[in-house]
Amino acid sequence: MEISFWAFVVSILLLFLASGSFSIDNFHQPFPIVEPDPGHTKLRLSREGLEAISRITTPIAAVAVIGPYRSGKSFLLNQLLSLSCYEGFGVGHMRDTKTKGIWVWGTPLELDIDGVRTSVFYLDTEGFESVGKSNVYDDRIFALATVMSSVLIYNLPETIREADISRLSFAVELAEEFYGRVKGQDVAFEPAKLLWLIQRDFLQGKSVQEMVDEALRHVPNIDGNKNIDQVNQIRDSLAVMGDNSTAFSLPQPHLMRTKLCDLKDGDLDPMYVKKREELKELVASVIRPKIVQGKPLNGKEFVSFLEQILEALNKGEIPSTGSLVEVFNKGILERCLKLYSERMGRLGLPMPDQSLQEVHERSREEAMKAFDEQHFGRHHAKRSAEQLDEEIKEVHKNVIMMNEYHSSRLCEALYTKCEDKMDQLQVLRLPSMAKFNAGFLQCNQSFERECIGPSKASYKQRMMKMMGKSRSLFIKEYNQRLFNWLVAFSLVMVVVGRFIIKFILIEMAAWILFIFLETYTRMFWSAESLYYNPVWHFIVATWETLVYSPILDLDRWAIPIGCIAAIWILYWRCYGRRKHGSRWLLPLYASHKGGSNRPRSD
């Protein structure tokens, strides 16, 4: 009866403690924060450890040690905390696992990180590959430690095995699923700094960084073996984190490993003591506060975050297999987006909308196909694929805007060129409808041929308006200008025929033309009917034939031809008569009286 009574008292006390009404007075000890359920498949929270964390009001950082069971994780943490085995984390010398779940040292180290006072907690995790546990349980421990920690120490004995790489890759994949899929919220945060810690009996030979690089190096796959491809993808997922990881080597502290807890620093290998202090400095240099959604977490926020993560994990909201490595997918996404951008960047803008759309669809299909072939995971892959599609749309929008800009510039330049051309044709020295029509057609054809892209339609309408106005204005002024030119031409020919060439027929023809234009047309034809008269049409056709043809553009060559003609006439007037005599004179004005030439009386 007495034994039963005391058992009852102990059970009541345990229930009292579990209820949370009992407050912890001594935090200088380890506390469990996550424990396994009785079936050792799922995890559950421990109120003791959560109370030790939630009391912290400053930003929190966590250092977690993961690795195989019986690999010295608890001893390593005690060494980092400068604690003995009897006051720090429990160290087991038997073949079973001492640490169950995840434990935290109740008293954090206070560090000044980038000017911010930060409380650093050290976490001890249950080793994997021990007897009586499922692989899913190990994966959950790994994933949870990865998500919680700011620095993740991967403690490995002697070397890196293929199983170590696969297991860590899976833990990273699983943890990455938490980053954006906790209760439908975006809980993105910086991944933990990965520290490869290899403990070995000797430090000669390859450095640990060389060992890590070699372990993550691609395995040749000439035959295209799918299994080798899968292993190489796992290596890629870890290699992408290269900028976020480092490696460190630690020698064994002493040959008598079962007696380590009873040995002082003076009894340990001096090289080990030296490297241990270097490891402390390394951890302190890389650790940063835990940041979620851009905000550092204090104790209560850290506990709330941990509760959400664990609840999602146990309910299966986050898959335990085939999950996505977000960092790796991010690199793939960037490469696929770059592939699309490069394809679109090679385009010679501007180009027609239909052609641009066809190139966009081909480039998008190529980028999405590359992503489908390389991505990790299923659920996150869908989200990343949607993100890639959205970013492709943004790039496509920018390309469309650039195409519109270049098209507008090109069409504006062609429009301005044609506008200037039309203005020049309006002020021809010798008005020519044929030349105007030729310039009009040339502008139209060059615009149709060279103006491409989305701005062509609007600028084409502007071109039609501008050229229509120019044509109407030219036709309106053409007849009047031609009439004035013919009047001036008749007067000039009168002077030329009478005083220069002295050919009376030319002079008479010029007078007839002048009288016809200035008298007859005004007496018998109106200004409007003149331009529709067949005689005027004949005059216009003759004028157009003389002024412009594909062979001769008199408007361009009028001045040179006039200069040449003036020089020839001047030469003939000065030297031709002396050299050739009167036979160069026109008969009408030649006089032979007395055998000598006599000047005209008039």
TrEMBL record:
The Gene Ontology terms for molecular function here are:
GTP binding; GTPase activity
Q: Which Pfam families match?
A: GBP, GBP_C
Keyword flag Magnesium? no
**UniProt signal peptide:** 1-23
Origin: domain of life: Eukaryota
Alphabetized CDD domains for the sequence: GBP (cd01851)
Q: Is Electron transport a UniProt keyword of this protein?
A: no
- UniProt keywords, alphabetically: GTP-binding, Hydrolase, Membrane, Nucleotide-binding, Signal, Transmembrane, Transmembrane helix
> Where does the GB1/RHD3-type G domain start and stop, copy by copy?
57-177
Q: Which residues cross the membrane?
A: 557-575
Family of this protein: Belongs to the TRAFAC class dynamin-like GTPase superfamily. GB1/RHD3 GTPase family.
Q: What is this protein called?
A: Guanylate-binding protein 5
What does the record give as the organism's lineage?
Answer: Eukaryota, Viridiplantae, Streptophyta, Embryophyta, Tracheophyta
